[in-house]
Amino acid sequence: MTLPTPTGAALLHDPRLNKGTAFTAAERDALGLRGLLPPRILTLEEQEERILSNFYGKPSALEQYIYLIGLQDRNETLFYRVVVDHLENLLPIIYTPTVGEACRTFGHIFRRARGLYLTVEDRGRVADILGNWPEPGVRIIVVTDGERILGLGDVGAYGMGIPIGKLSLYTACAGIHPAWCLPITLDMGTDNAEIRNDPLYTGMPRPRIRGEAYLALLDEFVAAVNAVFPGVLLQFEDFATGNALGLLARYRDRFCTFNDDVQGTAAVALAGLYSASRITGVSVAGQHLLFFGAGSAATGIADLVVGAMVAEGVPPAEARSRCWFFDSRGLVVQSRTDLAAHKVPYAHDHRPVTSLVEAIRAVRPTALLGLSTQGGTFTDEVLRTMADLHERPVIFALSNPTSKSECTAEQAYRATGGRAVFASGSPFGPVEFEGRRFVPGQGNNAYIFPGLGLGILASGARRVTDSMFHAAARTLAATVPESALHDGLIYPPLQSIRAVSAIIALAVAEVAWRDGLATVARPADPEAAIRSLVWEPRYPDLLAEGNGR
Ligand code: NAD
Predict the structure, then answer these.
(1) What DSSP line would sit under 20-75, residue for residue?
(2) Which numbered atom of ligand 1 lies nearest the CA of 372?
(3) 152 CB within 6 A, ligand 1
(4) Ligand 1 centroid to 374 CA: how many Å?
(5) Is the N or the C terminus of the chain less surrounded, counting Cβ atoms within 10 Å?
(6) Active site residues
């Protein structure tokens, strides 16, 4: 639906249409802007230069974040132009690690609400409130309840930075139109007393609502988004483990929904294992994995890896026996009586072990994956033990933000004599070691979910299935060039992410078409159909027919 183009000051205050100093002379005359802007007309490229010089002049990453969000609030096209053209430098600002810092202090840096807030008081009128959202064509929603933001834990309504950031990545990395994206925070309270007592806290300052009241709001919410925005893709983000897994199981077979911490992480890690196998020569089916941390992310990876092993012909029980877990109480073994349900399928028959080094010696994993939220826990001894066992040990330190990473890239390469195949959750720069230059990969979910979302939209898929995540993981791994692998980089360079997302979108859409999940018929040229959905941050001619809102 095209809404009428606003004019005058209202147009300058509409971030979707505002061009600032780039409005043409004809637009200034026709749209009542004459005199409201400085007379010199700049191009998008000239504006971009100005933005970058201001951006790099900021004294800290948080200040850069605040500056960029301000730009997003004023002029979305320019914001995305800058982000798309400088993704490698800007991704760590608009997403992890800086977004974590922003979430810790969200009320203090608050400028303008972006996204929608719902509280338990809104029960019975959730659909009405969704109807207040100004964009009628929402196609992707990212929702959080703020209870497990990155590795930071419960920050309550301050968690809104996460849905905003994730949706920015949908646009930046896959070209999903910003008007199709809606960030939502379910303010269920917070059990973080420090944040609750913060006088500038933006949420309801009360302990978390749990149990039936929580579920009732969730049920109403999920039904309402599907009623107000039919066919919408609903992404759950940064819920605590129990809710993440429970809500996924509750809704995944009824709605078009997924949990990025569980399934997106799993796909990006599985892709990393596929690429690593191109270096180590050990296929995914031949891996033995030790997960350090047994939360939603770690068990989500294991579940998807088991599916991939089964697809390669390994019997399910055998596949599960190749995945081991080590949590805050030690190795996950059958004799333990304290195990949450999601760990039970991976509790193997073994004596209890409480030291990670000892567990590595016992399990002899080909790959060690950190998802523990415990920074610095992959000590030199841990890393050396892995290197003693295998010529090319696979080490993924996936906890975010950077301070929670189980080890740094440099530690991994040094302690293993440059033999580790390393990836992390938060970015690390290249490492020089013994005359070689290593480029560590970032197992960033942004490699998967934007392309997945684009594929879902292209096919009109009604569900998000494991087969789609398998296809996305295999496709992502196949896009890594040999030259990148040579430097130790097991993910494609970030500069190519838009092209990679389009390839993933095609693979995901093909699964929807193959498995009878699509509501859009497979077009004669699916690649062209996907390309036609991709939004490029360029200023439209507002005087041309159909270019208004
Ligand atoms: P979670 O809270 O569900 O799980 C954390 C797990 O770590 C729990 O099982 C806990 O028992 C375990 N743990 C805590 N202390 C430990 C200790 N001392 N030793 C061993 N285990 C310990 O969190 P989650 O959603 O599973 O996420 C875990 C981490 O993974 C976070 O830091 C998150 O940022 C990161 N993550 C990274 C990516 C990515 O890089 N693509 C994606 C998702 C999550």
Answers:
(1) GGG--HHHHHHTT-TTTS-S----HHHHHHHHHHHHHTSSSHHHHHHHHHHHHHH-
(2) 7
(3) no
(4) 8
(5) N
(6) 95, 166
Distance of CA 202 to the CA centre of its chain: 24
48 alpha carbon – ligand 1 mean position (Å): 38
Q: Is the CB of 400 under 6 A from ligand 1?
A: yes
d(CA 380, CA 416): 8
pLDDT digits (tens, 9 = 90+) for 199-256: 999 999 999 999 999 999 999 999 999 999 999 999 999 999 999 999 999 999 999 9
HSE, CB side, 13 Å, CA atoms: give it for residue 284: 25
Pocket test for ligand 1, best of 400, 442, 444, 445 (most atoms within 8 A of CB): 400
pLDDT of the residue at 426: 87
Name the 3-class secondary structure at 546: coil
Neighbours of 509 (CB within 10 A): 30
Determine the Cα–Cα distance for residues 409 and 396; give it in Å rounded to an integer: 10
pLDDT at 111 over 80: yes
CA distance 166 to 34: 37
Residue 342, CA distances (Å) to 156, 246, 295, 328 in order = 25, 10, 8, 15
Q: Say yes or no: CB of residue 264 within 6 Å of ligand 1.
A: no
Which tokens in the block code for residue 270? Answer: 């599985």
Say if residues 313 and 278 touch (Cβ distance below 8 Å): no
Calculate how far, in angstroms, residue 261's C-alpha sits from the geometric centre of ligand 1: 10
pTM: 0.94
Does residue 266 have its Cβ closer than 6 Å to ligand 1?
A: no
Return d(Cα 202, Cα 195) in angstroms, integer. 9
Residues 6+ apart with CB under 8 A from 236: 143, 144, 244, 247, 248, 257, 258, 259, 260, 261
Instruction: Give the mutation target among 373, 374, 406, 449 for probing the ligand 1 site: most ligand atoms within 8 A of CB.
Output: 373
Quick one: CA dihedral 485, 489, 490, 494, positive or negative?
Answer: negative
